[in-house]
Write a structure and sequence with these properties.
747 residues, Rossmann fold, tt1808, chain A, alpha/beta
């Protein structure tokens, strides 16, 4: 009698790693502690490796800094346990694929598909995108489409089809919370109350998922109220709730209005801080109907046919930076495209890209004070804080930071300003979650009281409790104030070692009164300091401001409109001459060609499609012959399908600041081309341009314009067009005469 050998899950997973070449790329073990393998990578990837370990994964494969594949194995056969493993890995949000090995089975799953519902199997919804491999010998042949080279080039993601990201955890959570927000608004709840209610709900879910808020906490709130205690003792009889959700006490509390607001009051007293304070206006505006609706939506029940994934979200897994992105989206949606003051939520991949090049290990070793002068809901500040924590953890050979150490980093190294008070409050909330993330539940419960982060002039001397690191105000107005003012000392000129962020772009639209008032302050500050900007371009003003906020030798890293480099108005050229004389460029990365991949999508309501660039610079005078790296991000299959930042060395050129001041055309030449193109264009410049032909050819005249366009206002007659023919652009050829037969009548 022969025995059938079942290949072990560890054998299959190792075969996938070796036979498909992942061991020759950036493959790292999932671990919450620093090892010899991960020491050099910890600052960039440590939180991802800790998170992967937390959800039960074995390894993570990175392309540059982006986590793309999770490798996991399990011997479990229980569908409920498999569902829990998959959904927790899905909640990591950024990884694209899961290699999951079980005894006798190795499969690849697409993490952009929906999570597994209670009545579904692992293979439903087309999650599995590979054959099931049962033998080590078959791994290479049956999974050849998933070789490392196919991943790194992005070819596999093209084959998996378009619109893959819509059900990825980060996109899905934003979409689902937007549904909650809209339905609360439809029931007559004002937006700022809806935002506060959703914010507290996320915070409570986070604390429950992390086992900070235990059943005993809710029982203590209910003490002395028999009705409230009965609510806690009865499991919800909601069909849409999974077994895990039935244990969430907050969903039970929402059944009673008075109980809910007593819980909110208790949390405000225990945790303090600057998050979503409860006032009588909200308590009156929010009705039992609103809370019932919120409860149903958080369970996943909706009468509007939306498919909500709250049954799958683990708020102890979902990346912290998502909270900032959610509220930035809410704010833009509330204000509308024309009233968001030019601010835009920044995808986390771009934030990581900026910080990697700005907050280098050399910079972090000097304990820098970091400033975001237009911080929005705080995504740059959150990620800067986390990066500093990882750096310090590596310095301590992997030892976790104590609460006092975390408080010191938050108080002494993080600061931000924004003109929107609600955004400042959300920035505080986001930083609180980052602060709590690095503490165990026991540590949090021993000292629940959170520091106050918003600026308070009455308490700025009580530094142990009042950190005063977030200011509701206009950074230009602060910079205009006299030295000696306590606000100016912390947020004004020469107050930071590092300035980061994604400040507003362009010119405020009609109806954006707050944005226009902010622009007036920017223009006044520029005028007082004899600084020039062209076309009232806010990006140019913020680049000037960032330079002044920096101490000598400080470092800046900003997302700005490419108009800062490309606009040809005389004042824009004067801006570049001034600014490039004051600073030393390190990197300029032009994202114009791929801008829609980062700032457009099905889950985004306020879309930013203006061309943008990342600029990294130092506040130090230069001899202008020093070179800087000028990159042009090109559209590739990998970037298209992962929304990650991946640059090719072929798209980088070394330029000098002096050359860019003397020859303004270099910014555009090296956007698309290289040194040979520059030589060719210089050769062409020896010949007359079209605009000069009239001077060379007697009787000739040259008129240049943009052709004809359909007018919207103040239309003029178009009868004169009948005297002309139209040559379609498709009829132009590189060489030879133009084809006369292609000419058509004007419309």
């Amino acid at each position: 009698m022969s025995l059938i050998h079942t290949t072990g899950s560890d054998e299959l997973l190792n075969a996938a790693i070796l036979d498909l070449g992942f061991d020759r790329g950036r493959l790292l073990s999932a671990n919450a502690r620093i090892s010899d393998e991960t020491r050099d990578e910890w600052v960039e990837k440590g939180d991802w490796l800790s998170l992967a370990r937390f959800v039960g994964a074995d390894k993570v494969f990175f392309v540059d800094q982006d986590p793309v594949i999770v490798f996991a194995r399990t011997d479990e056969t229980d569908p409920a346990l498999l569902r829990e493993l998959y959904n927790r890995i899905w909640c990591m949000a950024r990884p694209q694929l899961l290699f999951l090995a079980r005894p006798g089975e190795l499969s690849v799953y697409d993490l952009s598909k929906p999570p597994i519902a209670i009545n579904e199997s692992l293979d439903s919804q087309d999650r599995r995108v590979s054959e099931i491999v049962g033998k080590v010998a078959d791994v290479q042949s049956q999974l050849r489409a998933f070789r490392r080279e196919e991943i790194e080039t992005g070819s596999i993601f093209e084959k998996l089809g378009p619109s893959r990201r819509i059900n990825r955890a980060d996109k899905a959570l934003i979409r689902d919370l937007r549904v909650i927000r809209q339905q609360l608004l439809n029931e007559g709840l004002p937006a700022h109350f809806a935002h506060s209610l959703i914010g507290r709900s996320i915070f409570i879910r986070y604390l429950e998922d992390r086992a900070v808020l235990l059943p005993e906490y809710f029982n203590a709130v209910a003490q002395g109220h028999q009705k409230w205690q009965r609510i806690l003792d009865c499991e919800p009889s909601t069909p849409g709730a999974t077994m895990g959700m039935q244990q969430i006490r907050y969903l039970r509390v929402l059944e009673d209005h008075a109980f809910t607001y007593q819980l909110f009051e208790q949390l405000a007293n225990d945790f303090n801080g600057d998050m979503f304070p409860v006032d009588d206006g909200e308590r009156t505006a929010v009705t039992a109907k609103h809370l019932s609706l919120l409860r149903d939506l958080l369970i996943g029940n909706t009468s509007h046919n939306e498919q909500l994934f709250f049954y799958a979200y683990s708020f102890d897994v979902i990346p912290i930076e998502l909270i900032s992105s959610i509220y930035e989206e809410f704010y833009n949606e509330q204000r509308g495209k024309t009233k968001n003051h030019g601010s835009h939520y920044t995808p986390s991949a771009l934030v990581d890209f900026v910080l990697t090049r700005t907050l280098t290990e050399d910079v972090m070793s000097k304990d820098p004070r970091i400033m975001d002068p237009a911080c929005g809901s705080g995504i740059f500040l959150v990620e800067a804080f986390r990066r500093l924590v990882r750096f310090q953890m590596r310095k301590q050979d992997g030892k976790r930071l104590s609460r006092p150490q975390l408080k010191r980093i938050l108080r002494d190294q993080i600061s931000g300003i924004d003109i929107n008070e609600e955004a400042v409050r959300v920035a505080a909330f986001s930083l609180y979650l980052a602060f709590l993330h690095y503490q165990e539940p026991r540590e949090i419960n021993e000292q629940r009281r959170l520091p106050n982060l918003k600026w308070s002039s009455a308490n700025h001397e009580q530094r142990d409790q009042y950190f005063n690191i977030l200011l509701h105000g206009n950074a230009f107005e602060v910079a205009l104030r006299d030295r000696g003012d306590s606000v100016v000392e912390r947020f004004g000129t020469c107050s930071a070692d590092v300035v980061i962020g994604n400040p507003p772009w362009g010119y405020p639209k009609a109806g954006d009164n707050l944005g226009r008032e902010a622009l007036k302050s920017a223009l006044t500050w520029c005028r007082v300091n004899s600084l020039t900007i062209g076309d009232n371009e806010l990006s140019q003003a913020f680049l000037h401001l960032a330079t002044r906020l920096l101490r000598p030798g400080g470092k800046g890293g900003l997302l700005v409109s490419t108009g800062a480099f490309f606009k040809q108005h005389e004042k824009s050229q004067q801006f570049r001459r001034q600014w490039l004389t004051d600073i030393q460029l390190d990197h300029v990365v032009n994202f114009a060609q791929v801008r829609h991949l980062f700032f457009r999508g099905a889950t985004r309501k306020a879309e930013a499609i203006a061309p943008f660039a990342v600029v990294v610079f130092s506040n130090s005078h230069n001899d202008q012959s020093d070179r800087f790296a000028y990159w042009s991000a090109k559209r590739t299959a990998f970037i298209e399908n992962t929304q990650a930042v991946l640059l090719s060395k072929a798209d980088m050129n070394w330029l000098s600041q002096r050359d860019c001041i003397v020859n303004e055309s270099l910014w555009k030449i090296f956007w698309w081309g290289g040194y040979r193109d520059e030589v060719f264009i210089r050769a062409l410049e020896r010949f007359p341009s079209f605009s000069n032909l009239a001077e060379l050819i007697p009787g000739a005249s040259v008129r240049s314009n943009i052709g004809f366009v359909e007018g919207k206002t103040g239309r003029i007659g178009s009868e004169w067009l009948k005297d002309f023919k139209v040559l379609p652009s498709s009829a132009f050829t590189s060489y030879g005469p133009l084809a006369a037969h292609e000419l058509t009548a004007a419309p």
